[in-house]
Structure formats: C-alpha cells, structure tokens
Amino acid sequence: MTVLLGYLHEILQGLTTTLSLFLISLVIGFVAATIVAAFQIRFPGVLAGAVWSLMFCIRGVPLLLILYVVYYGFPLLPFIRETALWTVFASPYWCAIICLAFVEMAFTSEIIRGAYYQTPKEQVEAARSLGLSSFQTFRVAILPAMLRNGFPPYTTEVILLCKSTALAFTITVMDIMGYANEIRARTLDIYQPLLIAGAIYICTVVVTRLILSSLFNMIAVGGAETADQK
Amino acid sequence: MLDYLTSGWGLQFLRAIGTSLTVAALSFVFCILIGILCTLLSRNDFRGSASLVNLYTYVFRSLPDILLLILIFYSLDGAIQSLLNRLPGSSDIRLNAYVPAIMSTSIVLGAYATELFKAGWADIPKGQFEAGQALGFTRVQSLVLVILPQVYRKIIPHLGSLSLISMKETALLSVIGIPDIVRTASIGARSTGSPFVFYGIAIAIFVIFAILCSRVFAYLESRARAGAQ
User: Fold this and answer.
1) Contacts of A47 (CB under 8 A, 6+ apart)
2) A64, A103, A206: which to substitute to probe chain B, counting the most B Cβ within 10 Å?
C-alpha cells in the first residue's frame, strides 16, 4: 500500500504537465482551426481545396509519426537550428504542444466547416431578408446553429486530444504517462503504475466531460434564446 | 532517397507495410466483431450485460490508447505464455508477439466500434428478430440477412473513419516493439541520420492509405445508398 501511495505521489508530479499540454494545445488548435475553417468558407476555390487536402493528409497520419518528425527531424534543419525557433524546438514539451495543436487544428477545422454547412440555407435567407447585415446574419442565424450542431463532435474531439497528450512521453516529456512508464522501466511493475495513471486519466476525462456538457447546456440554450429575442 | 530504397531499406519498408496492413486489417475485422457482440449483449433483456458493455466503452474511451495497449499487451502476453507453458510437452513454445498485439488493438478499437454499432442499431425494432423467426430464419440468419444490412447502411460513413483509426492505431504498436512502418522509419532515421527521407516515406504511406480508404468507403457508401432506394 505504501508502495502504491509512493507511485501515486510520483505519477501525480506529471499532472500539471499533462493538463498544461492539453489546455495550451486545445486553445492554439482551436484558434488555428477557426482561421483555417474561416478561410475555407470565405474564399472557396483552388486554394481552399488545397488547404482541405492538407488537413485531410494531417488527419490520416498518426500523431506519433508527427511527434517523431518534429522532435527528431526539425533540429537538423538549419533555419530552425540557427534562429530563435531553436529555443522552442529544443524543448520536447513545446514540440509536443505544437504537434498536438497541429493535429487538433486539422480535426477541429473540419468540425467547424461541417457545422457551418449544416446550418439550413433558409435560416440564412430569412435573416438576410429581414435586412440584417452579413455580420448580423452570422451572429443571429448561423453562429447559434453552428454551436448546437458542432458542440457534440467537438466534445469528442476534445476528449481525444486529452487522451492523445499521453503520447508525449514517447519524446521524453515527463507527463503522467511519462512517470508511469519510468516507474515501469525501473521497477518492472507493469500493472500498478499504469493502473494508477489510468485512474488519473479517467478522472481528468470525467471532469472534462462534465465541464463541456454544462458549457453545452449554457451555450445551446442561451443561443436559442438570443435567436428568439431578435 | 532511391539510394536508401535500393540498399535494403526498400525491402524493410515493404515488410513493414505488410505488417502494418495485416495488423490493421485483422484488428479492424475483430473490432467489428466485438462491436456486434457487445451491441447484441447491450440489447439483451438481461440488464447487467448492458451496464457491463457501457462500462467497457466508457472506460476504454476515457483512457489513452497507448496506456491501454501497453497494459493489455503485457497482460495478454503473460497470460497466454503461462497458459502455453501449462500444456504438457510444450514448454519451449514462444508466443509470436503479433497475437497479443492484434488482440490488444482489437479490444481498444472494439470500444469505438461498439459505440458505432449501438448508434446504428438504435432504431431497429427488436420485433425484427421475431419476424425473422416467423419466416423460418434462425437467429443468426435474421441477424446476418435482415438486421446487419440495415445497420451497415447507417454506419458505413463511420466505418471509413474506423478503418483509418485502426491503421493509425497500429502505429502505436511501434512503442511496444512491433516492427511496423513507424518503427522501421525511426530505426532508419536514427541509423542513417536522414530523418526526413524515412519519416517522409512513412507519412507518404499513411497519406496514400488514407486516400485509398476514403475512395473505397465513398464508393461503398454510394452503393449502399443506391441499394436503399
């Protein structure tokens, strides 16, 4: 029992790393995804098609491979090694954040695009015929529908991102999984450290789900209300 | 790049592609079987089985895949090996690492497949089993001939992404030591000192697979839609 508590204490050291990996890449990924999706929606054409293909390719490649390329490959590039970028790419922690945000961008931009195109055309036309400007139309007719349609898949994506942060241990980031793996290699106990790490991950995911579902209730209902009031 | 491919790495990559594709295909098939089985269990009249299935999907979808893979791989490996050693006169059998590897990816992916099948199965009335029986079908026949085609039509777009996920999932096996595409690429990158060539080849393989997958499933989807009309 004392051994297990010792393990728990050691693994919990990685909790802040896991949470910060998760939250920082979530925010960066979301902002990047919004820009990418907005570009694709606003300027349809060859360039948007190219962006879509790039996102499709990123979604097809395992995160592990992207982590390896950035962590082991990028230091060999002269323009990274010899400029200020090196301070970022020399740290496995920031490499992991960049990779997670990059992959998150590819998935989230598709969710945003899907939510946008799910909005009924009639709703937009009705808003325009009421004399609303295009920004007002977006705020009143499109955004609430996008939030309602896009939030459930986005919740799934956020949970997936939370789970993906565990891969950061493959490039020597000491997060929850990193500490658990270190104990596993040191003591040859397989089950205890991994099960403890698993329990911590489940708690994190449960809390994330609770936060997201209460956020969804707030946003979806609030969006419907403002749409009705206008 | 051609120098590397002709100097033996090409053969290594071909072997790795074979490994990855085999493991991915087998885990895809097994996870679908797990999905069908768990959905049947959760639609059973016995309530306990439904909550067991819910527990399985909830826990497995909340844990990182890599953690689950390591945990299941080592437990299965140990369990099967000690079982084999119990058998009389077979103490020198060494288990192939692919068996626990495929089993662990199938169990992890099975949780996703179960959710998928449960969603596709949701609005198919239970009475269809009885209707099948009235027509003289056995339970298996009415499952395969009546119910699964309807479920298939509903979940076919998601099956495409599931196949892509199972391909990406096999990449995680490289952490355990299975010589798949990612492992071959990183060994090559480390031993030759040119990571971009090797990782580039690996990325190209995955991208080609993703494109093929989306083409195949778009075709299957259009055929399923045509069949429904």
Assistant:
1) none
2) A64
For B192-207, what is each residue's pLDDT tens digit?
888 888 999 999 999 9
Instruction: Please judge whether B70 and A194 are an interchain contact, meaning their C-beta atoms are less than 8 angstroms apart.
Output: yes
B211 and chain A in contact, CB less than 8 A = yes
Q: Ramachandran region of residue B180, left (φ > 0), alpha (ψ -120 to 50) or beta?
A: beta
The string of pLDDT tens digits covering residues B143-186 is 888 888 888 988 988 898 899 999 998 899 898 888 899 999 99
Closest CB to B67: pick one of A170, A177, A206. A177
Residue A130 is classified by DSSP as T
Looking at CATH, the fold of the domain delimited by A2-229 is given as MetI-like fold (1.10.3720)
DSSP string, chain B: -HHHIIIIIHHHHHHHHHHHHHHHHHHHHHHHHHHHHHHHHHTSS-HHHHHHHHHHHHHHHHS-HHHHHHHHHHHHHHHHHHHHHHSTT-TT----THHHHHHHHHHHHHHHHHHHHHHHHTTS-THHHHHHHHTT--HHHHIIIIIHHHHHHHHHHHHHHHHHHHHHHHHHHHHHT---HHHHHHHHHHHHS-HHHHHHHHHHHHHHHHHHHHHHHHHHHHHHHHHH-
Residues in A lying within 8 Å of B, measured between beta carbons: 56-57, 59-65, 68-69, 72-73, 76, 159, 163-167, 169-170, 177, 180-181, 184, 190-191, 194-195, 197-198, 201-202, 205-206
Which stretch of DSSP H or E encloses residue A170? none
Contact A192, A181 (CB under 8 A): no
Domains of chain B and CATH, by start: 2-228 (1.10.3720.10)
Q: How far is it, in rounded angstroms, from Cα A113 to Cα A197?
A: 35
Per-residue tokens: A202: 């489940």
Find, among A1, A13, A5, the residue nearest to A176 by Cα: A13
Neighbours of A114 (CB within 10 A): 14
| Domain-wise residue ranges, chain A | 2-229
**Count of H helices and E strands in chain A?**
12, 0
Return the CA Rg of chain B: 21
Mean pLDDT of A122-144: 86
